[in-house]
Amino acid sequence: MKDLVTDISEKEWLRSVATNPAFDFLSNADEDVYSLADGKSFSILSMSETEQLTYVRYQDDLRYQASLVVSNYGLGLREGREAGIVEGRVEGRVEGESKLLKRQLERRFGALPAWATEKLSSASEQTLDVWGEAVLTALTLEAVFKTDDIH
Questions:
Q1: What are the two backbone dihedrals, phi and then psi, of residue 55, each rounded to the nearest 5 degrees?
Q2: Which DSSP symbol is given to 63?
Q3: What's the rounded mean pLDDT across residues 101-117?
Q4: Which residue in 62, 65, 78, 98 has a CA-CA distance of 20 to 30 Å to 22?
Q5: Distance of CA 133 to the CA centre of its chain
Q6: 115-145 pLDDT tens trace
């Protein structure tokens, strides 16, 4: 499996984090862990051992949350790509079957009327398969499309 982190650029990742509402708390002044309310610079060394441990746990938790965002973003991106590829293949297959069947019908029955062309362009893959078999034995163009009433 491809490394998910390499699937997205740093710019994409930063944009997704910057616009993610889960991180809105970072702009809240009450959550500012880098400076104290009195304006003095923040120093972990001035904290008690218990406060330092709590702060380290807090940092670890933030790193873990950030890793979840990155992995879920990458996973969603990959799943979206895979779904798009599958959908594109199905659409391409249906379009190809429709074009082939149109050529076969034109060869057998001559120029197609607008209603037949419209039916071909809106047909499902399964319907095109049925018509593709019917074109071999049907005596008229209408007979080919009558098979869609049976199924």
A1: -65, -40
A2: H
A3: 94
A4: 78
A5: 35
A6: 999 999 999 999 999 999 999 999 999 999 9
Measured CA to CA, the distance from residue 144 to residue 142 in angstroms comes to 5
pLDDT band of residue 151 (cuts 50, 70, 90) is very low
The pair phi, psi for residue 35, each rounded to 5°, is: -150, 155
Residue 26, C-beta contacts closer than 8 angstroms, at least 6 positions apart = none
Helix axes 125-134, 49-109, angle to 10 degrees: 20
Provide the H-helix boundaries in the chain. Answer: 10-18, 49-109, 114-122, 125-134, 141-150
Please spell the DSSP secondary structure of 95-118, one letter per residue: HHHHHHHHHHHHHHH-SPPHHHHH
